[in-house]
Amino acid sequence: MLLDADECQLVLVDYQTRMLPAIADGLAVLANAVRLARMAQALDVPIFATEQNPSKLGHSAETLNTVLAAASARIVSKMSFGACADGLAEILRPALRKTQGGNARSLPKHLQKAVPEPAQTRNAVVIAGVEAHVCLLQTALELMDDGFEVWVVTDACGSRTERNRDAAYDRLAGNGAELVTTEMVAFEWLRSADHPLFREIQALIK
Known about the structure:
CATH class: Alpha Beta
Strand content: 15-25%
Radius of gyration: 16 Å
Strand order of the largest sheet: 3-2-1-4-5-6
Number of strands: 6
Largest sheet: 6 strands, parallel
Order of helices and strands: EHEHHEHHHEHEHEHH
Structural class: alpha/beta
CATH superfamily: Isochorismatase-like
CATH topology: Rossmann fold
Number of domains: 1
C-alpha cells in the first residue's frame, strides 16, 4: 500500500518554541517537519498543526509557522495530550459525522466551518510531531481508533530521549500505524519522475 497525495492530510503535532530545544536531534526533526509542510503545500495536501497549551509552551517554531501561514493551515490549540479530545478528528473528517446520523450543525460552532470541502474525503493521515511518546503517540492512536489510516513520519518525530521515541514507534507499529520517512512520503506522493513538481519536491529533500 502506497501513499496517495489525493487521499492524504498532514498533521504536525506540537513543534513549539519551548519544547523543541529539549528534543533529541530537535533541529533535524523540525527541518523534516518543514519539508513535509512545504511538500504538502505544493501538492495541495491539507495541513493541520496542533499546539499544546500554547500560552505556556509557545506557538509553532518560526520556520514552520511561516509555511503553515502560507498554506492557510488550520491550527488546533489543545490541552489534552491526544488532539482528538480537543476536536481534531471532527476537523479532519466532518463528513463522516454526517453519514452517521448527524449533520454539520450538530458539531460545535467552532468546528462547523473548520476545514475546506476537499479535505473531507481524505482518510489517510500523515502525522509527525513531538514528543513522540506522548502527544504524537496518543493522537495517532486516537486517529486509528476513529478509523483513519495513520502514517507516522519517523525522521520528523522526536522525544527528549531516544528510548522514549523508539518505544513510541514500537507501540505505533504494533497497533497498525505505517512507519515512513520524509523521503518515502515525498516519492510516494509524486509516484513518478514525470510529475510536474518532481524537481521542486526533490530540491526540498536534497
